[in-house]
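Data deposition worksheet. Section B asks for the primary sequence of the deposited chain exactly as it was used as input, without tags or linkers unless they were present during the calculation. Section C holds the resulting structure in token form. Section D is free text for depositor observations; keep each observation to a single sentence. Incomplete worksheets are returned to the depositor.
Section A, Depositor: J.P.
Section B:
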Amino acid sequence: MFPFYSYRLMKSSSKFNSLGGFPDLESFKDESGKYGYREKHSGKVFIAPQFDAAHSFHEGVAVAMIDHKYGFIDRHGLAVVKFDYDWAHSFHNGLALVERNGRYGYINQEGKEIVPIVYEHIADFHEGLAPVKLHDKWGFIDPSGKVVIPPRFDDSWCFNESLAAVRMDEKWGFIDKTGHLLIPLQYDFAWNFKEDVAAVKQNGKWGYIDKAGQEFLPFLYDEADSFSKGLAEVKLDTLWGVIDKTGTWQRNEECI
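Section C:
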């Protein structure tokens, strides 16, 4: 097995973070093409170059790669999760998304599978749930790996403002966190709710609906984005611009 080396910290090091007195580390590549870690401010090497890839530290550990396999190391350069994955993402809230043989799941920092590595795709957790794809259908799981909404949708977005846009039979609608369809599957496309309204497309035009499924702004736009801070970018004929929630144009420009 490839050896792991680490350099002892010198007591005189001046730039430290709050993680057990360790300095702020960054990855670097040496002349041989191997990656290690050094202290950002002084350039002092703390973990000797030995990895084929090395990512930033998150929650005390970093993704690294050896011989085309990904694992996780601590700030001593020691493997805390074995190099057993075809791809891996950094830890967030105690979980890391990993891939093996084209399937995805989540592990904890001990390498235990919290979400089994069986899914064709997994999106990020949002509002406590993550979309997962299994047998070409989408559903939702919680951080313990429990299937909260069984996979049955052709496509889905993450939850936002307690609702998620989903697609079945080429039409989009919105579900709540129990999987109940609150707004019928009737739109050609849909963005998630933001600031209590959602941009949706119907019969070739975009408009906005509220959480009761009622029309908020009429279906007259050729393109439409979600609202942010009370404004949304839209296109009407050849004109791109920004509207407020009354539909009043705040600024616009001709398409080139």
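Section D:
The domain at 1-93 is CATH 2.40.10 (Thrombin, subunit H).
The longest strand covers residues 45-51.
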